[in-house]
């Protein structure tokens, strides 16, 4: 009985260590991705600052307004983006399960599924975030016909 309890505790310990390593790796990957995204933002801001003086005064104001609106991401918008990303990920998993197990005819390639990692997930979230924000601007008519 004591031996069984000891084995059970040892397996729980190794399971906890596995989880710790997994969470550490995820945390490290997310930290790297956040630094990468911060660097991308810094570079894009630099590009905007270089290009902005070449625009007309009216367009400069529109671009500055659009940049400020892009910085105003709300919690509900983030939740919506995360929900969309999760649904897309679940759909791709379901499609992967539904792939035929029989060999494909010669010349046909299986459909490629996107690899989902912490990095690509965040990139997708940032892309979805900018798309959602831009589509919201279009609906609200902020930048409608001045282009």
TrEMBL record:
* Keyword flag Repressor: yes
Biological process (GO) annotations held by this record are: negative regulation of canonical Wnt signaling pathway
| A GO cellular component entry from the record | transcription regulator complex
Residue ranges occupied by any Groucho/TLE N-terminal Q-rich domain in the UniProt entry: 1-90
Q: Its Gene Ontology molecular function terms?
A: transcription corepressor activity
Keyword check for Secreted, yes or no. no
Tell me where in or outside the cell this protein is found. Answer: Nucleus
Name of a matching Pfam family:
TLE_N
Signal sequence coordinates = none
| Keyword terms, alphabetized | Nucleus, Repressor, Transcription, Transcription regulation, Ubl conjugation
What InterPro entries does this protein's entry cite? Groucho/TLE_N (IPR005617), Groucho_enhance (IPR009146)
What family name appears in the similarity comment? Belongs to the WD repeat Groucho/TLE family.
Protein name per UniProt: Amino-terminal enhancer of split
Taxonomy of the source species: Eukaryota, Metazoa, Chordata, Craniata, Vertebrata
């Amino acid at each position: 009985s004591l031996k069984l309890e000891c084995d059970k505790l040892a397996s729980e310990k190794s399971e906890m260590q596995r989880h710790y390593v997994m969470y550490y790796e995820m945390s490290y990957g997310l930290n790297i991705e956040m630094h990468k995204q911060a660097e991308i933002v810094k570079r894009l801001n630099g590009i905007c600052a270089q290009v902005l003086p070449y625009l007309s005064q009216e367009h400069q104001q529109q671009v500055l307004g659009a940049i400020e609106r892009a910085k105003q991401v709300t919690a509900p918008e983030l939740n919506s983006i995360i929900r969309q990303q999760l649904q897309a990920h679940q759909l791709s998993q379901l499609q992967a399960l539904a792939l035929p197990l029989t060999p494909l005819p010669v010349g046909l390639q299986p459909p490629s599924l996107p690899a989902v990692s912490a990095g690509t997930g965040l990139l997708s979230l940032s892309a979805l975030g900018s798309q959602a924000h831009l589509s919201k601007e279009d609906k609200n008519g902020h930048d409608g016909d001045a282009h």
